[in-house]
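User: I'm curious whether this sequence folds into something compact or stays loose and floppy. Could you predict its structure so I can see for myself?
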Amino acid sequence: MKIPDIYQGRRTAELVRALSDVDAPLVEPSGPSKPADDELMDSYSRTITRTVEKVAPTVVNIRVHKIRRENPRGQEGGGSGSGFIIAPDGFILTNSHVVHGADKMEVTLADGQAFPASLIGEDPETDLAVIRINTPQQLSHAHLGDSKTIRVGQIAIAIGSPYGFQQTVTAGVVSALGRSMRSQSGRLIDNVIQTDAALNPGNSGGPLVNSRGDVIGVNTAVILPAQGICFAIASNTAEFVAAWLIKEGRIRRSWIGVMGQNVPIHRRVVRFHRLAAEYGVLVTGTEPGSPANRAGLREGDVIVAFAGEPVSSIDELHRHLVAKMIGVPTIFTIIRHTEKLDLVVTPEELLQDNQKN
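Assistant: Here's the prediction. I'll summarize afterward.
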């Protein structure tokens, strides 16, 4: 069917008018304006962002240089880790394993400034250390919170320098409390925080913080190849250790000079002597001239109590050997064959290069 001429003319006119408007500026439809990015962030994101803005300026990268003395040319090795400023005059808290054995250390602040650092003190038993940089300005510093107030499930934010990528932020939750882990010296570290905030090599020594920006832990270890199982030394432990390292450069602990292992005690012996536990510490040897040796502890004895408190493992014995016991005559209750005896042992101070019981 033929299209009427009048219809064709009307359609052509409409097409011409449409083409003439192609270059006209586009006009947004009227209505409410688009929200800004910060308005789109939910409460969780705002919390993370606010916390990072508060804490990140206190987090540093630590470069460690070690001279390989076994190499005749004395070539340098090294590594890196994290730390955070705990005082405006340049004191920095980090892990002992990050700085142990370092010949030189260099600290890079969040703003890119780099300074040489010196070791104030370290405590391998808790894997903590304090180093210091000298700067003319007062530095932003982090606040150590109370780890006793932590609850499982609360937000946990880690800031550090994994693989050298400075100011890296990861977030998760506190997965568990009251964990224990071994330090490099073999002692048990108590009250360790478990988190799923991702940690990688280089995060060690950096802060784990809560939603208020308070440091609740010092990131220290991951379990490989597991994912989301990471650990931090509780802030209360860190605060105690840091204070003593700044004051004296070391942590004082007592020592008796025994080698031992955990063993079960025969049930008949437990019932006969009314022991509080079915396990004790078997003495497998004593250091010549040590407090234990002088007190008469022998190989084969089983330690079952310290000053009247039950001792069922080497870790419990370690917990009793604190600074206040140095030089204090203390009753050790032992089982020798089937006989129960009390021996008086006077613990001495544990030197840092002496990692015995």
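Summary: DSSP finds eight helices and 20 strands in the chain. Residues 5-20 form the longest helix (16 residues).
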